[in-house]
Amino acid sequence: MESPRPRQLNDKSGREGQAAVLLAIMVSSFLMFFMFAVNTGLLINAKISVQTAADAAAYAGAAAQSRQLNAISYLNYDMRRQFKKFAFRNAFVSSIGNPQFPGNGADNSEYTFDKLDYNNGTNPSILQLKVPVVCLPISAAVGGSSDSCLAVNYRNTAYDVQNSVGGVLSSLNSITQAYLNSVTSIAGIANSICSGRSGINVFMALAWLFRGDLDDQSIDEMLLSTTSTTLTNPERTKIKEQIQPLVQGLGLFPRNVITLMRIDTLKDFINDKPANVDWEGMQALENSPGADAHERTILAYKSALGNLNSSVFDAEKTRLEELQPAKMLELDEVKASFKVYVQAMVPTSPSVPSTKATACDSFIYKINANDAPVGVKLSSSAKNVFYAVRLRTYVKPMGLLFMQGPGELELDAMAAAKPFGSRIGPKGLSATDFVVSRSNLPPVNGQVFCSSDCFSPNLKLGNDNTNFFNTRFMRDMKALSGGAAPSTTGILDAQRHATAPNPTEVGLYNILPPTPSTDGSQDPMDFEFIPFSDPASAKGKPQIYRFYAPVFPRGGASTAQKVDQFLQSIFPNVSVSNDPIGLDLPILRNQLKTSLTNYIDSKLSTGGQESEHGETETFAALELPIQDSLQSKPYLSITPKEVRTSWSPDHHKVSSYDVKFTPRFGYSVKLVSFRDLMQQGLASDDPDVEKMSH
Q1: Quick one: which of 594, 583, 519, 525 has its CA closest to 559?
Q2: Residues 650-665: pLDDT tens digits?
């Protein structure tokens, strides 16, 4: 009997059921892996985008710091140039009448500022004063030669004539007597004239130090008050024409005080306290009266948003937290105290000039210019300037392809950058770099005008520690000014040479190079100039660089209050001491405050139409240190390429300049490792900062 056959199952239908299940599992797994891969990729891309945005924010903030540091460095060097301009005027312009000007000594020998002393008879002795003495040799008004500053006193021609005829007036015939009376009368007029010249000398010294106006009224008032009884109007006009170019521009004190105010404002911008802002906070900063103080934060936030996709990230919920410490930049003001000597000429005593060998005696008095601002330097408490941020933002929900639900994913990133590659000025700068100490100076007409600690304005020249005002300097400056008959135009040309960069400054200061020459002899500069006048059409005129550097932030106290507060901060003591001409210190300081306030309110605030070089309240305007005229006949062996080496000071001494690199100047920006900055301290108490991957 056959066994029963097993029943065959429907294999096809069974397999199809199992395949459907497997297929469903496989498709679901594939979709899950696909969604995971897509979401992971999107998250990674989003994280990269946030990090890129943080990097951009850090770079933008550091770029703002870099521009501000550049502006501070330009202004700092201009303060040095203003001191050089004053020192040139004080030494060179005041010495044109010296008997042996410009001297016959060796190149590096010290210039002695000689004067003739007629007190010992007709053969005068030579006094080596060793310090500049302000005396402008103006004589055109009285028809004499330009020798009014050669001597510390003048021969009394009436006395000479009287002695030549035996001194017995009764024995003279009528013609000789009339002649002698005329000579005596002329000597009396000369006494009055020398008093007027004394007033001119005083005005020149005070103008170079304290002049805070740019109009002609002050010159007119000075000439009228000091020479009203001795000069006619045509003579006064002629003297004014000689004086005016030699006192143009602000004096040393007001010019450098305004510059210090600009530096102080920029320093406060860099030290603006760290902010923590979202979209609304950034807009509030941007629309505030003091928006310029928050430029760093505003630019950083906008740069971050510019690198975030608005369809992926929620811009209004993006938050920027600045992490760098406040007050990173600390600057010390360098203030030099020195004496400015002025030659005063007074009528002889007794009042009858025919009884004395000199008709016009001189005495030298000193103006003690204390705490003259000449520059700034990094304080020992200064820190490395850098900019660090933490950027937080939210990813918008994007459905199945990204994430489900109403929630948002928070992402954050950190980045840091810093300015680098340049310097504000030498760290070791001190007041002694601007003065030379004198002692035991020879008396003038029996008067000891300085016995010890006679600090005189000066600088070092070259790399051999030579004083700025040596024989070579005076000789070369005279040649540049016109030789035996220096012209006003020539003196101003020599002044531009005297204030040009010298070897001791290259590599230590951030010095603005010249604009490209129109004939193509110079390489184009690596920066954008905003010329006040077109260099191509400004032959013979100064080339001006204008840049953003407010005198003070917008809003707050009045100009007078701000000026007074600033003067009080830099001149806690008196700035100029009492002297024989009766300078009253409180009055002089108040005059400085008034002139600064008027200059800022009436000239800077009106668009710079009447200000120096067209500067405004918000924009500084500096004359470029190297002009076209300087390159055609430079006094010092400094080339524009050597100036453009603030990134590489080791190369500036290569005479042939065969170094294979492009000279640079000024601050640039680089991203830096955030972890390397952690030890410097951050303005954040958020413990998550330590846990972040940097």
Answers
A1: 594
A2: 444 444 444 444 556 7
